[in-house]
Q: What sequence folds into this?
């Protein structure tokens, strides 16, 4: 086993529980913006539709096909028109309300703090995320994650997005280490695992739902619970 010195974490869907926090936020917005009055969809279907739309928009964003403004502008328009509203019926300010409220939510994956407490004395811990800088800062503060990490690199601050290996190299340059000394942990196979591999960094595929991947090179390690990191590190 390699003697790693630095551990790189993705944030959303790896430490910060995006789905749980987003669901709670969307239920609040359903009430706040009185979406039930349209009589076209339930709160549950609103959440499911938003999740479907948002995942696909983020995939386009990660591939450089849309920018931050388009992602934020279109996600609620596509969600609500897909549920039967006319575009002019989409409540003004709902996207901004989501952007303000969701990052303040505090849910993290099971064993997050326990594992970070275990790793912090042994390794340099860092965040590498395609999320937006100001939003990720709020998430980390709300969930009390900031103190565990030395460097937080976002796609906005370095000009590249995972899986572009230049984003990984940007972080390696900041902490002045070789890729062989690092281990990347993330939930997105393309962005986190293949991106890190292409940069010469070993990887841990965090796969809590045990999704079977297509036929392609496996990650160096695969886990379904963060507590399993103790068996690796």
A:
């Amino acid at each position: 086993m390699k003697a790693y010195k630095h551990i790189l974490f993705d944030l959303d869907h790896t430490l910060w529980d995006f789905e749980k926090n987003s669901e709670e936020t969307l239920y609040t917005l359903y009430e706040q913006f009185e979406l039930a009055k349209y009589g076209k969809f339930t709160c549950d279907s609103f959440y499911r539709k938003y999740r479907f739309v948002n995942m696909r928009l983020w995939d386009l964003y990660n591939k450089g096909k849309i920018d931050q403004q388009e992602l934020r502008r279109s996600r609620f328009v596509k969600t609500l028109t897909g549920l039967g509203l006319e575009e002019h019926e989409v409540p003004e300010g709902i996207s901004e309300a989501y952007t303000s409220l969701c990052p303040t939510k505090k849910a993290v994956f099971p064993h997050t703090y326990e594992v970070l407490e275990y790793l912090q004395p042994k390794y340099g811990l860092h965040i590498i995320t395609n999320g937006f800088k100001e939003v990720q800062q709020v998430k980390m503060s709300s969930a009390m994650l900031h103190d565990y990490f030395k460097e937080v690199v976002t796609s906005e601050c370095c000009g590249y997005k995972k899986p572009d290996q230049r984003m990984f190299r940007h972080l390696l340059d900041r902490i002045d280490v070789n890729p062989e000394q690092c281990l990347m942990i993330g939930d997105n196979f393309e962005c986190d695992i293949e991106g890190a591999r292409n940069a010469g960094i070993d990887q841990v595929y965090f796969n809590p739902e045990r999704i079977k991947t297509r036929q392609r090179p496996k990650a160096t390690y695969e886990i379904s619970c963060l507590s399993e990191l103790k068996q690796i590190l």
About this structure: The longest strand covers residues 124-129. The radius of gyration is 18 Å. The chain has two domains: 6-17+108-232, 18-104.
